[in-house]
Amino acid sequence: MGSPFREPVLAPPRGFRDILPTEARELRAIERALSETFTRHGYVPIEPPMVEHVMPDSGPERHRSMQFLDRDGSLVALRPDITTAVARLVAQRYRDAAGALRLSYFAPVFREEPAMLGAERQHDQAGVELVGPSGPLADAEVLALLAESLARCGLRDATIEVGHVGVVRRAFADLSDDDSAPVMEALREGDHVGAFRRAADAGMRDVELARARNALAARGRAIESIDIEGVEELREVIHLARDLFAGEPLWGIPNLSLVPELPYYTGVVFEALHPKSGFPIATGGRYDLLLGAFGTPRRATGFAINVPRLHLALFESGWRPERERTLVALRPAEPRVVAIGAVAERAGLEIVESTVVDRDTLRLADGRVVTAEDLARELA
User: Fold this and answer.
1) How far apart are CA 153 and CA 174, in angstroms?
2) What's the pLDDT band for 338 if we cut at 50, 70, 90?
């Protein structure tokens, strides 16, 4: 006997979802706004593959990647991050390139998440990478571009916090590299209490612990009292970025407690926050050592926008896409007349219902009979 009939599984796998027309139209509007802004500043689009080889030293993000064995036995993964893929691409395709590379992308990423959290394992990410230039002006260019990109999408009241991983590392210079590594790991996880406990257990002097606590507590004008190499650079980057994109209100808040989750950042870092989102909308910063891991040492900086979080913040703030052209739905007056028919999914579009009278005229839902030319002028 054959196997009993089984109902088809209609729901997508855990952590994946269908995006229906209304949301898809809104996401496309965000993509257009971001892509146009990136292009306006000279960033050209790239599309790395969805699947990348898993490197032996992939770091802490390796446990979040969705891995599987290829048919040749090699371990591959759906990319959990675009920046690492871009670093690999630059090392392969632009090994001998001179000058600045300005690259942009809008693509999905995939990350394993605990089942109990109900989190999405796929989402769109948009961003840029500036490869080659270094120094405050290069960092300011990317930081200002993030602020402008969010504004061009229509986001208001975003706060961009700016920190410096180099300053944080120097705050724990009393420790050896081996002892400071777990301290930085705890900071990346947001565990400041654990970080200082590890530093104390490793023998960091009380006076240096107090100095480090004071540094990581500095936000806004309070950083002016911090005497650690890199603080002046941080302030200069923020001032230059504000000159490049003024924005309203004044944006860019120094915050030395900001230590991103990803471990490859080396200098100025930043994240964008919004009252309507409980998580950062965007993160970025300088990562001068990442390309060296692929055999092509080059300086680089960039940012990545979590598109669903940006979409949610925009939507909760009252944003809607710009009005698109009205769709005229045509119902046939008789079977032999070809027409579009009824619209089952409106997707937020403005739709005018009508019935075909003859080749030149339509009857609208309010009873009026108009010509196609008259309707077109009315909807223009």
Assistant:
1) 44
2) very low
